[in-house]
Each structure stands twice: as structure tokens, then as C-alpha cells.
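User: Please fill in residues for this 464-position structure.
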């Protein structure tokens, strides 16, 4: 499989470590607010990546953090902790806020058929690990204490900008916040590993450390969680493109300084979902959530279809008109598929050809829109329904659009068979064999066929 690697700025063959288990790390949500569908675009694309790696026979061990401390309103250690602000605003404790929005995140993710990663770790649960890493960074001269905080010294690295091609002008976040620079920092790119005597007196969660009561910076949590659960060598690290700088740049700096060797081979970044005001963002007032879509009458999977119809490396423009278009196409596609029969048949000779077409699309830097085209090509082909459904089921294991869900209900059942079963049930009832009568009713119900006993006999309807 070929994939664009932000680290090398090239599309390259994905070669996992020799153990055969892909070590995959995902930056999780900052749980101070609802996840919007922009955040969820990133998680949909990462979900497809994970499922596709499994489809081609790899095992994947995937870890995600939950950011419940340390992520400030400014990415360069400025502003306030987003969690603390939200807790104040909602008159709740930080932990209550974190619990509420974490649960809601996974509920929304499930509505989009995003699989929960194997391991999900709240940042607040691994404080000792961060202390261990920071202590070593201080011992080895990569970190320093100033104004009560512990900072990472970026001047100690030869290639701090490894992920961003040394192009400081492109680092919008850095440039914007430069004006308000923290005077404790020796270099403007240095970042906080541990806050103690910080400007945030009202920080609710604090832990004791060798440097005093305090709390970790945002970046150290991802390095700490990743190294603890996935070891010293990571195959692939994922996030949205806004994470490239400073978050991922700082993760590389501190992890490699700590480990003394290269840490992660592939960096996978998803472009933003934009709306008329630019990047959809939690702090930017109006944003769209899964519930917004449901309340407006959309099927959330129409949004997943919209995301998969575009390439993860290109910005995606959200508008309700676009979504209406996607929903129409998605529902039409499902309707066509629901007309296929699951009747057992011979596997068509072209089965492997279409399977290869799907693989070629996904191997081509995860081209999900071409993969969707393959579904249409299968439907258009002259293969039998059995082969078509076998292929679509297989592809949907990766795309997760519930493409064949409707058909499951009436597996292999035709009118004549239903009528025979109704007659058998009537016979059983006549013989007072109510157990058998119920069994037949339940069996049909499982297939989506509902029986109704009327004065004129038993009728049935197929559930939508
Ligand atoms: P956050 O909850 O802000 O920490 O972000 C969670 C994930 O969503 C991160 O990987 C971000 O890079 C990503 N993200 C944030 N905004 C967008 C957006 N508008 N489009 C796509 N991904 C985004
Ligand atoms: Zn992260």
C-alpha cells in the first residue's frame, strides 16, 4: 500500500515493523466541547485506514488519548486550559466535563461507524509516565526550568522542523503567537513540558512532581501514552493537519530526545473540513455536530459517504447543499443494493478482478472515492447477485457505510416460502402446539417479516 508520509513529503510504500502488528497512534479529542463533524472527518479517515490495513492482512494495535488536561487555547502555551474554561462556563468540575464529552464523542463516532480504538487513555491517567520522561530530558540537558515551568529546549536539536520542512513562514500558529511570546522561553519554539508556577492559578487538577505542584503540557501526553502502550517504535501516527505544528513537531522532538533514536516512520494527516467561515473549529462559535445532522433529518452515514467521496489529503467544503447531494447518492446506492438477492449461486469468474480494483484504489494513497466507484462498477456488471453482494460486503468491511444492512432482513426468503411457513404455523396452532407456532413467528420476525392474525386469516408485512 502506498501512502503520503508527511515526514518525507512523499507518497511511499507502507512497510510496517517486522512483528506484523502495526503500531498506530491517534491524537484523540480535547473533551471540553462536542466533537464537530470536522474532527469526525479526521476520525472517519483514520478509521478507514485502520480497517484497510486489517483488510490487507495486517494486525493493527491502535491507541488513542483523550485530552483532558493541558491543551491551552493557544497552541504555543498561551491562553487558558480549554478544560478549565469549559468547566467554569458550565459550572461543573473538569472531570465531569471530561466524562460527559468523552462519552458523547464515542456515541457520535459510533453513529458514523467509527470503530473505537483498542486502547483509549485519558491524559490525566498517566502523570507518572510524563514525570519520568521529563526527568530524563532535564538530566540529559534537553529541558530547562524557567519561571517555575519546565521547558523543552528546541535549540538542542539539529532538525526540530523535520515535519514541516523548515518553513517557519508557513507556521501560522507560531507566527500569530510570536507577538505574545512567553519571556521564560530561551527560544521562541521552546514549549512547556510541565507547568508549575504558571499563570493559571485556577487550574483545578494538579499533581505533585519533582518541580512542584503542577500539570503536564499538551504535547507530552501523546508521547507518554504512545511510548507506554505501543513501545519505542511507532509505525504510524495520525491526526488532522493542524496537529503538524506545533503538536506533532513537539512530540517528535521530545520523544526522540528521550529515546535517542527515530520514533515514528509514517505520519498520516487529514486535511480540514471547512465551511463558509474557513476551518470548522470548536472555538469558532457555530459548528455542526452529528446531532445537528440528525435533528435536520439526515442519516449520519450520508456524511460518512460525503467524506469518503473526497480524498483525505484535500480540503473538504461542507454545506448543506453538498450534504443533500451526498445523501441522495448514498440512499440511491443503498436502494440499488437492497434489490439484490442473497440466493446462493456460483462465484463469478470476475470476482477477483473487482476485488483487485478495490485494492488498487485503496493502495493508491487511500483513494476512497475510487473505491466507491468500484462498488458502482460491481453493481453495473453482469455478475450474479451472489457475487455482487459478496464483493460489496467485503468492501463495506472497510467503508462501513451499512451498504447491505437492509438485505440482511430478508435473506433467502421468497413469498412461497413465507406462505408455507404461515400454513405450518396455523396447523401448529390448530394442534395446540403453541411452542412451534411461536418459533415460526419468531423466525420470520428475525428476517424482518411481521405476522398479523386477522379475522380473514394471517397476513404479513415486510419491515422497512
Ligand atoms: P481536538 O479535539 O481539537 O483536539 O481535535 C481532534 C482532532 O480533530 C485532531 O486530530 C484535529 O487535527 C482534528 N480537527 C480539528 N478541526 C478539524 C477540521 N475542521 N477538519 C478536520 N479535522 C479537524
Ligand atoms: Zn496528540
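Assistant: Residues filled in for all 464 positions:
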Amino acid at each position: 500500500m502506498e501512502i503520503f508520509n508527511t515526514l518525507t513529503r512523499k507518497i511511499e510504500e507502507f512497510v510496517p515493523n517486522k512483528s506484523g502488528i502495526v503500531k498506530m497512534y491517534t491524537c484523540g479529542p480535547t473533551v471540553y466541547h462536542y466533537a464537530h463533524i470536522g474532527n469526525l472527518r479526521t476520525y472517519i479517515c483514520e478509521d478507514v485506514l485502520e480497517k484497510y490495513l486489517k483488510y490487507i492482512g495486517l494486525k493493527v494495535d491502535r491507541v488513542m488519548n483523550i485530552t483532558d488536561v493541558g491543551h491551552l487555547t493557544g497552541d504555543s502555551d498561551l491562553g487558558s486550559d480549554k478544560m478549565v474554561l469549559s468547566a467554569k462556563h458550565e459550572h461543573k468540575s473538569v472531570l465531569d466535563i471530561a466524562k460527559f464529552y468523552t462519552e458523547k464523542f464515542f456515541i457520535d463516532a459510533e453513529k458514523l461507524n467509527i470503530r473505537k480504538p483498542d486502547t483509549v487513555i485519558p491524559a490525566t491517567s498517566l502523570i507518572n509516565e510524563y514525570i519520568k520522561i521529563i526527568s530524563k530530558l532535564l538530566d540529559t540537558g534537553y529541558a530547562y526550568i524557567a519561571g517555575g515551568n519546565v521547558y523543552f529546549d528546541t535549540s538542542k536539536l539539529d532538525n526540530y522542523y523535520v515535519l514541516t520542512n523548515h518553513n517557519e513562514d508557513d507556521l501560522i500558529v507560531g507566527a500569530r503567537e510570536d507577538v505574545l511570546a512567553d519571556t521564560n522561553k530561551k527560544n521562541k519554539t521552546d514549549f512547556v513540558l510541565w507547568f508549575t508556577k504558571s499563570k493559571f492559578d485556577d487550574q483545578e487538577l494538579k499533581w505533585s512532581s519533582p518541580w512542584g505542584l503542577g500539570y503536564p503540557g499538551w504535547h507530552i501526553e501523546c508521547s507518554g501514552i504512545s511510548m507506554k502502550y505501543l513501545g519505542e517504535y511507532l509505525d504510524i501516527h495520525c491526526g488532522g493537519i493542524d496537529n503538524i505544528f506545533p503538536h506533532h513537531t513537539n512530540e517528535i522532538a521530545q520523544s526522540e530526545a528521550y529515546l535517542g533514536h527515530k520514533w515514528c516512520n509514517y505520519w498520516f494527516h487529514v486535511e480540514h473540513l471547512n465551511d463558509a467561515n474557513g476551518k470548522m473549529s470548536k472555538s469558532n462559535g457555530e459548528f455542526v455536530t452529528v446531532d445537528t445532522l440528525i435533528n435536520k433529518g439526515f442519516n449520519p452515514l450520508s456524511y460518512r459517504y460525503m467524506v469518503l467521496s473526497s480524498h483525505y489529503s484535500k480540503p473538504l467544503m461542507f454545506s448543506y447543499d453538498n450534504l443533500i447531494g451526498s445523501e441522495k447518492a448514498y440512499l440511491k446506492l443503498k436502494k440499488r443494493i437492497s434489490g439484490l438477492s442473497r440466493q446462493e449461486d456460483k462465484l463469478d469468474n470476475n470476482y477477483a478482478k473487482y476485488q483487485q480494483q478495490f485494492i488498487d484504489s485503496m493502495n493508491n494513497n487511500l483513494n476512497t472515492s475510487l473505491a466507491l466507484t468500484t462498488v458502482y462498477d460491481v453493481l453495473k456488471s453482469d455478475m450474479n447477485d451472489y457475487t455482487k453482494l459478496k464483493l460489496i460486503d467485503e468492501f463495506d468491511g472497510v467503508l462501513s457505510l451499512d451498504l447491505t444492512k437492509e438485505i440482511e432482513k430478508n435473506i433467502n426468503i421468497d413469498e412461497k416460502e413465507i406462505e408455507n411457513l404461515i400454513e405450518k404455523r396455523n396447523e401448529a396452532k390448530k394442534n395446540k402446539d403453541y411452542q412451534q407456532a411461536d418459533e415460526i413467528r419468531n423466525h420470520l420476525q428475525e428476517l424482518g417479516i411481521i405476522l398479523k392474525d386477522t379475522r380473514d386469516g394471517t397476513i404479513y408485512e415486510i419491515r422497512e
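For context: The mean pLDDT is 90.
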